[in-house]
Amino acid sequence: GENVEQHPSTLSVQEGDSAVIKCTYSDSASNYFPWYKQELGKRPQLIIDIRSNVGEKKDQRIAVTLNKTAKHFSLHITETQPEDSAVYFCAASGDSGGYQKVTFGTGTKLQVIP
Amino acid sequence: KAGVTQTPRYLIKTRGQQVTLSCSPISGHRSVSWYQQTPGQGLQFLFEYFSETQRNKGNFPGRFSGRQFSNSRSEMNVSTLELGDSALYLCASSLAGRGSVNEKLFFGSGTQLSVL
């Protein structure tokens, strides 16, 4: 089955700096890669996603890149703000017998220091 | 549109007991999946239901079971509770029908289970 590795497990940055979280996946059939943000005590929420036919996607201060050959994808947050502090989960999704199956990474706790 | 609702929000049980958690998906969503969240372990997939049928199952012991009703509401049951079952249990709903991939998951707030 699919295996998703996520690094680092914790990340501290100064406000205004950039943060990068990296993930690798094992199943070359995975074709959808969402990122979820979970603030303390709250539910995970989708913040950005990328499909396998796209190499990069941006949404304001966040961007995701995908390297299908290397099976790597990364989340980039620029000009970090205190409200970016949260746990971020990457995931890989693909067909499993005609249905979607999602596998999550172990999460990265991002702390933005004011 | 109402979000995904999970009840109860908190549960305290003792070892050996059993527990049932409930999840009501977003209206129109027929897929419900369950995850166990523990510090350092991320989101561990338990199982996924669609139209009352279990479509996918994670690597959890048979003490963990679930079901889905005709209105798409889902329940998860854990029998013979162990201390290690203490965790936040999240459910998520999506539209994902057969042949449909790349579907966004909408999570509930979770049920925090403590086993003493």
Description:
Chain A is mostly beta strands and 114 residues long. Chain A is 0% helix and 61% strand. With 116 residues, chain B is mainly β. Chain B is globular, with a radius of gyration of 14 Å. The interface between A and B is medium-sized, with 29 and 28 residues.
Q: What's the short story on this structure?
A:
With 114 residues, chain A is an all-beta fold.
Describe the protein's topology.
The complex is a heterodimer of chains A (114) and B (116).
Chain A: E1 4-7, E2 10-14, E3 19-25, E4 32-38, E5 45-51, E6 56-59, E7 62-67, E8 72-77, E9 86-96, E10 99-104, E11 108-113
Parallel strand pairs in A: 2-11
Antiparallel strand pairs in A: 1-3, 3-8, 4-5, 4-9, 6-7, 7-8, 9-10, 9-11
Chain B: E1 5-7, E2 10-13, E3 19-24, E4 31-38, E5 42-50, E6 53-57, E7 64-68, E8 74-78, E9 87-94, E10 106-107, E11 111-115
Parallel strand pairs in B: 2-11
Antiparallel strand pairs in B: 1-3, 3-8, 4-5, 4-9, 5-6, 7-8, 9-10, 9-11
Largest interface: A-B, 29 and 28 residues
- List the total number of helices of chain B: 0
**Can you count the beta strands of chain A?**
11
Largest sheet composition of chain B: 7 strands, mixed
Strand content of chain A: over 45%
SSE succession of chain A: EEEEEEEEEEE
Descriptors for this entry?
heterodimer; A: 114 residues; mainly beta; six-stranded mixed beta sheet; 11 strands; 61% strand; B: 116 residues; four-stranded antiparallel beta sheet; globular
